[in-house]
User: Which sequence fits this backbone?
């Protein structure tokens, strides 16, 4: 079976069992390894977060057959390879919010979804947006700072 | 020392941050390996059982199965070690905990490997199991290993505890229980192993101890160490859980058996069951004091739940035992620590290494003493806290380490005062609690504790660090780059860290024990000095000058005629002749005999310590028993914050782990008979559960540390749970003696939330 | 993941047909179903994905009623201005489910059909007296939620039957409703106990209608007739609410589990009932003012 969908703005056709998870397909068929498995595919950690039609979802709980004709964005699509980082990525780096980095792609995408919907979020809104992204390294402190910093920068750009 | 620092003290950005934030960083599961096979592990479903039979024929015959390995097939040592070689690579005759590896199966895909596990035919005879460390030491308890369930016992006495208790004006006693928690690194343990054509093995690991992994893999495969090469992939967190060669050994066996490349990636439940946990503990604490709050003596009996295998248990038991007096000067001490095997998933080196358990007990006792005497808990701490000139109860003098105590107490006082002013939300009760803590640095007396660092100047002008202890995500690389850059007068951007490869990197020892910045930093300073010397020698030769005529400055050699030679140019010329511009140095933890009591077992005592304290503010809902932590202020003496953002990051992460320890994390046995083994039931704090954390970094320079730096890796964790417990007491008058603090305990405690004013 | 065959019908008729032919399980958001499949607790040979049935994802007003498509996600319902205005207990409950990622996938229909005793959406739907409109090989039929929820994970859905829509009357003014949930942590929390309440006041400000539902306190989410009886015609306020809270015990059958003991659940249920009622009253009172 072939599933057709857009990944980071590019149309792809994947021949595979439609019952495979989107996470597996991204990682194994498309070599997009930014989305990670942290909890054994139970949707409990957010390390596999991708944007599906602009909304954050756990790719481990989406079957690839379910994304037919839809738009998937992964962390790899946020900045051109070797190019300038997206303001959210830059904010994470500058705020010291990246330690082991395993949760980072998912958290950055969750933040992106938040800021596209809510350009001036409160701390509570930021924490709510990140509530599905477990981090064991940072205590979330600098991640929240990073999102706030990114919001300011994006606000300036607007 | 230069009067003004160039890069030390600045929050330089991490060089790996870009690859992590773009998804380009390659963790083991991301490494491209053409044709890599997958291994699946058959794991014990029983706490304790004899393996009556293990039939592999059906599995071996299946077309999708490439290889099967059981302990009978293991070519080298059946068991490997952290401290004691008691841990089988694959179970030998018996299984001692649920999740223990029994057999290994290699297939072309992960799914095929997993489903083929069903082709293995195992018959178990279940045996009685013991899951409690106190019960494990009672006569008749089911034996976990052949030599009884008491793995280690430490009994120390200092001064005259009996006299202290006899002469006391107040005696308190309480028993504390702390639970089993998991490191919970977001990246599960993983290893990629490749059997090379020449009969050697290359492994890509996510590990805190690549060199020890190499020793263990070599031993299990019966290979000389030189035939095993370990490369560190990007590590997705560790916290002590990856101070364990389990997955590397399995991957090595799989690659050897399949004569190919095999990936082993733990599922989350496998990580929970088969990798090191924090030791659960039962601590019976007795304390004798005078009415003015002076602590005269303590008498402590501690049981630590080792689980099924030794791992780093004896070392944890050592630090636990040393930590039982906390940050206090206590003249009479009797401690009895019993490390008991049980049939539970084994405990090991998890962050804090015995400190969190001990501190929950001692810091609760100090607050209980204050409550009993109607004294201010900070005052009681101030009265008893160590000062320079005091000795730890083991006899170790605490001088420079303890210099920060006065400032720590002052900062705690300030923070507490400010937090007390905040009003509680409607219907809630606010409370503020404090704690003090001490964390030892290093591996302890008589344990080889070295770190070797190598520096090399490249022709392009950059300096590369080859360090043998991996960055786990905590920022070791950036900190050591800054230290090396400082030593060489270079900007941090010019120094980078080579990926760890046992073929090229020197052995740095395990990344643990809050030892890395200190040791690697010292090694790098020494290596930098040697590198400078080598550079001058090389430059002298090139310029036809004497070394004495040349001067080094910020990456250049100044010649007497005013010309400058770039270090890169010198390196380049040397490279043409096949020589490297490099230098190496070893740094060790010093245990000078006059400061190190010699009568203790190996690993005890520690001679370098860091002190800290935390203040926590909570709001308790007195009707629901729920606890909201609204503020944490963490006051840490780090000696020198090499990279303040990284230091804060360590502390903030440690505090979050401490909050989880205090309030939500637990790995009990469920009614179904299975252990909690997933994030649905093991509740890590989310972004909505951790408040803002204020870090107050004090810098009382440690003379023997690089630019005064000490360690910070583990510090954040130990003070948090007791600060929260003390805050809960302040809020509702309930003294919690178990962790995690449950709403049920808060509501049903005999103290109960009083209807009116809380006791002061 | 254990293997199954995935079917992706493009309309309801095809979905029904596939369910009948394959005896498969409906897949909506997958946030409850797929983890169970992964753990081997559910081994379906066939999964029929309802995701393409866009026509089942909507929120609208039909006269005096609010109608929700079964494939509306928790995110849809928590952000819908219509649901927030007319069924705030439901929007709050949906906002409390899991985390953003799960809310963007988990559906109303899935939440109901999964019939977890702890499902957050169910107590509000019960106090709203929602009916579920089902579609199967035998045609369409409507059932009340209590008729649908039989036990933990069990519904009275017939083979190949799915939930198509959920319908409830917009509560009359002045009324107020609330949802209270207790978890072991703030983020990604499964309810230890939850309560939904709806109060309709009369002209004199007394309670004309009181509805109360309990979650995570019985084999299914359920109404509390005992509490409702205690509130009928009563002067709303602390005294009545305490009586109702105590009365609610009679309708609770909590169990001990990993998250809490039955005793603790009984203790907190009274608190949650009182608070849900207080909140409802407060909202009703605010609604009365011009």
Assistant:
């Amino acid at each position: 079976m072939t599933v057709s969908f857009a990944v980071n703005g590019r149309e792809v056709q994947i021949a595979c069992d439609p019952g495979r998870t989107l996470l597996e397909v991204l990682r194994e068929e498309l070599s997009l390894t930014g989305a990670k498995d942290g909890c054994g595919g139970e949707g409990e950690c957010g390390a596999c977060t991708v944007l599906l039609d602009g909304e954050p979802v756990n790719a481990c709980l989406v079957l690839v057959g379910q994304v037919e004709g839809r738009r998937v964005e992964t962390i790899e699509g946020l900045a051109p390879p070797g190019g300038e980082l997206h303001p959210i990525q830059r904010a994470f780096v500058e705020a010291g919010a990246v330690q082991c980095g395993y949760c980072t792609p998912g958290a950055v995408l969750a933040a992106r979804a938040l800021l596209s919907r809510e350009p001036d979020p409160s701390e509570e809104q930021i924490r709510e947006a990140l509530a599905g992204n477990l981090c064991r390294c940072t205590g979330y402190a600098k991640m929240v700072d990073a999102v706030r910093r990114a919001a300011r920068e994006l606000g300036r750009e607007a | 020392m230069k009067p003004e620092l160039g890069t030390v003290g600045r929050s330089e950005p991490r060089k790996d941050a870009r690859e992590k934030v773009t998804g380009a960083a390659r963790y083991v599961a991301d490494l491209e390996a053409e044709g890599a096979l997958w291994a699946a592990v058959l794991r014990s479903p029983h706490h304790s059982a004899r393996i009556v039979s293990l039939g592999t024929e059906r599995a071996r015959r299946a077309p999708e199965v490439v290889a099967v390995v059981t302990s009978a097939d293991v070519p080298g040592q059946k068991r490997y070690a952290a401290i004691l070689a008691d841990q089988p690579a694959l179970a030998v005759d018996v299984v001692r905990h649920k999740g223990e590896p029994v057999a290994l199966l290699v297939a072309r895909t992960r799914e095929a490997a997993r489903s083929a596990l069903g082709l293995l035919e195992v018959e178990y005879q279940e045996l009685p199991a013991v899951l409690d460390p106190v019960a494990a030491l009672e006569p008749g308890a089911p034996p976990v290993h052949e030599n009884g369930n008491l793995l280690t016992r430490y009994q120390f006495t200092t001064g005259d505890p009996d006299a202290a208790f006899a002469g006391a004006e107040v005696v308190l006693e309480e028993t504390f229980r702390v639970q089993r928690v998991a490191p919970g690194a977001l990246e599960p343990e993983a290893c990629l192993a490749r059997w090379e054509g020449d009969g050697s093995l290359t492994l890509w690991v996510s590990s805190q101890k690549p060199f020890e992994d190499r020793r263990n893999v070599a031993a299990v495969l019966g290979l000389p160490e030189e035939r095993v090469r370990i490369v560190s992939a990007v590590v997705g967190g560790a916290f002590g859980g990856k101070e364990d060669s389990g997955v590397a050994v399995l991957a090595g066996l799989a690659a050897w058996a399949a004569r190919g490349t095999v990936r082993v990636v733990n599922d989350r439940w496998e990580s929970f069951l088969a990798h090191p946990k924090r030791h659960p503990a039962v601590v019976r604490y007795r304390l004798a004091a005078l009415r003015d709050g002076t602590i005269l003596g303590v008498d402590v009996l501690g049981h630590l739940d080792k689980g099924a295998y030794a791992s780093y248990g004896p070392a944890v038991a050592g630090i636990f035992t040393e930590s039982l007096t906390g940050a206090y000067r206590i003249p009479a001490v009797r401690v009895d620590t019993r490390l008991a095997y049980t049939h539970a998933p084994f405990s090991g080196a998890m962050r804090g290494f015995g400190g969190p358990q001990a501190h929950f007990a001692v810091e609760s006792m100090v607050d209980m003493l204050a409550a009993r005497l109607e004294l201010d808990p900070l005052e009681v701490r101030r009265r008893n806290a160590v000062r320079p000139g005091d000795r730890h109860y083991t006899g170790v003098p605490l001088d420079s380490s303890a210099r920060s105590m006065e400032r720590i107490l002052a900062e705690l006082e300030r923070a507490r005062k400010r937090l007390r002013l905040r009003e509680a939300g409607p219907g809630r009760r606010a409370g503020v609690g404090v704690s003090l803590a001490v964390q030892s640095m290093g591996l302890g007396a008589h344990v080889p504790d070295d770190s070797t660092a190598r520096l090399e100047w490249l022709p392009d002008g950059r300096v590369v660090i080859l360090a043998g202890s991996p960055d786990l995500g905590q920022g070791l690389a950036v900190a050591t780059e800054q230290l090396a850059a400082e030593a060489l007068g270079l900007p941090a951007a010019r120094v980078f860290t080579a990926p760890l490869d046992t073929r090229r990197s020197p052995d740095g020892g395990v990344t643990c024990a809050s030892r890395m910045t200190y040791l690697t930093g010292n090694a790098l300073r020494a290596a930098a000095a040697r590198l400078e010397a080598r550079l001058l020698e090389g430059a002298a030769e090139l310029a036809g000058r004497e070394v004495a005529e040349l001067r080094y400055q910020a990456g250049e050699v100044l010649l007497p005629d005013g010309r400058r030679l770039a270090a890169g140019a010198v390196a380049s010329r040397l490279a043409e002749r096949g020589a490297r511009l490099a230098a190496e140095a070893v740094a060790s933890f010093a245990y000078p005999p006059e400061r190190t009591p010699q009568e203790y077992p190996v690993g005890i005592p520690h001679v370098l310590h860091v002190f800290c304290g935390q203040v926590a503010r909570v709001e308790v809902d007195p009707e629901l028993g729920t606890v909201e932590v609204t503020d944490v202020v963490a006051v840490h003496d780090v000696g020198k914050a090499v990279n303040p953002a990284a230091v804060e990051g360590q502390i903030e992460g440690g505090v979050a782990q401490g909050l989880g320890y205090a309030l939500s994390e637990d790995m009990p046995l469920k009614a179904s008979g299975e252990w909690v083994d997933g994030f649905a039931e093991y509740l890590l704090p989310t972004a909505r559960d951790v408040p803002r954390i204020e870090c107050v970094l004090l810098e009382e320079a440690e003379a023997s540390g690089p630019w005064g730096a000490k360690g910070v890796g583990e510090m954040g964790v130990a003070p948090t749970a007791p600060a929260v417990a003390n805050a809960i007491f302040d809020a509702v008058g309930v003294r919690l003696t178990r962790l995690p603090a449950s709403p049920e305990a808060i509501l049903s405690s005999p103290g109960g939330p009083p209807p009116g004013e809380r006791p002061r | 993941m254990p293997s199954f065959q995935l079917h992706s019908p493009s309309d309801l008729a095809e979905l029904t047909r596939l369910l009948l032919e394959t005896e498969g399980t409906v897949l909506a958001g997958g946030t409850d179903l797929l983890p169970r499949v992964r753990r081997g607790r559910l081994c379906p040979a066939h999964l029929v994905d309802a995701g393409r049935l866009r026509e089942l994802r909507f929120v609208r007003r039909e006269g005096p009623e609010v109608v929700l498509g079964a494939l509306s996600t928790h995110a849809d319902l928590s952000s819908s201005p219509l649901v927030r205005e007319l069924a705030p207990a439901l929007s709050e409950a949906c906002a409390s489910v899991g985390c953003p990622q799960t809310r963007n996938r988990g559906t109303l229909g899935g939440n109901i059909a999964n019939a977890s005793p702890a499902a957050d959406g169910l107590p509000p739907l019960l106090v709203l007296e929602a009916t579920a409109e089902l579609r199967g090989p035998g045609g369409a039929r409507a059932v009340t939620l209590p008729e649908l929820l039989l036990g933990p994970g069990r519904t009275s859905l017939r083979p190949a039957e799915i939930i198509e829509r959920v319908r409830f009357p917009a509560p009359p003014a002045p009324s107020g409703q609330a949802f209270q949930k207790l978890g072991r942590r703030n983020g990604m929390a499964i309810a230890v106990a939850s309560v939904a309440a709806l109060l309709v006041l009369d002209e004199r400000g007394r309670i004309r209608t009181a509805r109360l539902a309990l979650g995570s306190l019985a084999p299914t989410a359920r109404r509390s007739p005992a509490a409702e009886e205690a509130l009928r015609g009563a002067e709303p306020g602390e005294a009545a609410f305490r009586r109702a809270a105590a009365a609610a015990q009679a309708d609770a059958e909590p169990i001990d589990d990993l998250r809490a003991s039955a005793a603790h659940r009984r203790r907190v249920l009274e608190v949650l009932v009182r608070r849900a009622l207080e909140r409802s009253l407060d909202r009703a009172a605010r609604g009365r003012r011009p």
Observations:
- The domain at 2-77 of chain A is CATH 3.10.20.30 (Ubiquitin-like (UB roll)).
- Chain A touches chain B through 55 residues (CB under 8 Å).
